[in-house]
Amino acid sequence: MSRIGKKPVSIPSGVTATIDGGVLNVKGPKGTLSLTLRDEISYTLDDGGILVKPANDSKSARAFWGMQRTLVQNLVTGVTEGFTKKLLITGVGYRANSQGKKLKLQLGYSHDVDIDVPEGIEIKTPDQTTVEISGIDKQKVGQIAAEIRRWRKPEPYKGKGIKYDGEYIFRKEGKKK
Predict the structure, then answer these.
(1) How far apart are CA 91 and CA 151, in angstroms?
(2) β-strands 121-124, 113-116 pairing
(3) Which residues contact 71 (CB under 8 A, 6 or more apart)?
(4) How far is CA 63 from the centre of its chain?
(5) pLDDT tens for residues 117-143?
(6) In the predicted model, is pLDDT for residue 75 greater than 70?
(7) Contact call for residues 125 and 64 (beta carbons, < 8 A)
(8) 32: nearest Cα among 50, 9, 13, 16
(9) How many angstroms separate the CA atoms of 165 and 152, rounded?
């Protein structure tokens, strides 16, 4: 039994959810998101929220149960609050600058790295060493954060690179004489 799947997803005021044609649409103050529903899972809309249950007792239905409930919760959270990831840049001469729909990174390469910001994502740079990525779709926010981090992962000796806020970098001791 899924402990997460048992809990209903509460729908706050100002958010509307509809199921039509195998697609769940959630509309809120920040925008609209949709999710294609699985056949193994049954979804019921109540006045209190959305209840997710396995449609049958198969192994795949039980496996998808908790994940589908979490995906529905992410839709509701996205249209009400949104999601944010914060990246920290460490290193001499490493910096970021947001210019409209582009993010310009200087990461010690012979060239600047230009990253196009996808639709629905907002990137802010409060200072040169901080990048804040926000949007209503959790998957898109995490994906663009991972793509930015991939340009210069933090290394274990000096800790230089791009890391998530709160991420611990395991440090190694350098060479000894």
Answers:
(1) 13
(2) unpaired
(3) 35
(4) 22
(5) 999 999 999 999 999 999 999 999 999
(6) yes
(7) no
(8) 16
(9) 15
Give the residue carrying structure tokens 């001499």.
92
- How far apart are alpha carbons 75 and 87 in whole angstroms? 23
What counts of helices (H) and strands (E) characterise the chain?
3, 13
Distance CA 54, CA 35 (A): 17
Q: What is the chain's alpha carbon radius of gyration, rounded to the nearest angstrom?
A: 21
Q: What is the enclosing helix (H) or strand (E) of 133?
A: strand 130-135
Spatial CA neighbour of 75 closest among 12, 32, 22, 118: 32
The yes-or-no verdict on residue 3 having pLDDT over 90 is: no
**Nearest-angstrom CA–CA distance, 50 and 32:** 16
Among residues 67, 80, 3, 74, which one has the least CA distance to residue 41? 67
Q: Is the pLDDT of residue 175 over 90?
A: no
pTM assigned to the model: 0.87
42 has which bridge partners?
53
